[in-house]
Amino acid sequence: MIDAYGRDINYLRISVTDLCNLKCTYCMPEKGIEKKERCDILSLETMEKIAETAVKLGITKIRLTGGEPLVRRGILDLVQNIALLKNKGLKELGLTTNGLLLEKYADDLKKAGLTRVNISIDSMDPAKYKEITRCGNVQDVLEGVRAAKEAKLFPLKINVVLIGGFNDNEIEDFVAMTMDDDIEVRFIELMPIGEAGAWGREHFLSNEEILKRVPTLIPMPFKGHGSVARLYKLPNSKGKVGLISSLSSHFCNYCNRIRITPDGKLKPCLHSNIEIDIRNYGENGLEKFLMDGIMAKPTRHCIQNSDFEPVIRNMHEIGG
Description:
The structure is a single chain. The chain is of the alpha/beta class. The chain has one domain (11-318): TIM Barrel. 27% of the residues lie in helices and 17% in strands. The chain contains 9 helices and 12 strands. It has helices at residues 44-57, 75-83, 102-112, 126-133, 138-150, 171-180, 208-213, 286-295, 315-318, and strands spanning 11-15, 61-65, 92-97, 116-120, 156-162, 183-189, 218-219, 230-233, 240-244, 257-260, 265-267, 276-277. It has a 12-stranded mixed β-sheet with strand order 7-8-9-6-5-4-3-2-1-10-11-12, covered by helices on one side. It is globular. The model has no long low-confidence stretch (mean pLDDT 92).
């Protein structure tokens, strides 16, 4: 599916819930959130129909996100049913998780047809992890990482949101994880969305900081279209380091994705408040719903502009 600027849109992210078993400070308000009524959240059946229609239109990659997708009841059935689309053109089915429930679900997710998993860890220090998540135990996440490896949910990626004054002193430790394990540690620049929209500038660090701290990183060939991460590796390492620089070096020219929120809104761009509501389309209007969303994609986001208005919604409401 080609958008108005000639980009091939082949990647769909579906947020299956806005609920989470953590309350990360940049993602969710401290008081938590109120659980929505069932009628306000897309059913799993509707998500499956969206996925089927998207693959029919040319989507080859689908990722399930949240909130925390593994707290959604019926998630294994959803994975299994979407995985059936591999016979119709779907090449990859991934899931982004905080990892807390992976020890329980990794094997079943693999058997259901999940291709790969991304695990979010913003600190490996137990006290700091509990601080940023307001309640989490990092050891549970590390057990989830182990379970994902054993289930062969590869390639395995670790997502780290880089936060100035909080976890920037752990950069070298995260990079070192790639030395002996075939994993990709991905540093993601903190984005001014929702709760983080009002944070001080000192918390927003460019990914250039990683290259300053670890000058031995070797750049790898750029994958081009659809790739959001610039890849590097340590000499003789088994794994890789990815830098996702949404703010300092945007990849809008290569953006190949659209997002569906848990309440049925299609977001053409993560950094825009533009949303297209599925409820404005009839039961047989899913193709138009998706195509309208694709054609509404802007040429680029405007975070650096002085008149930029931060996205109102928090990340748990959108899906990462």
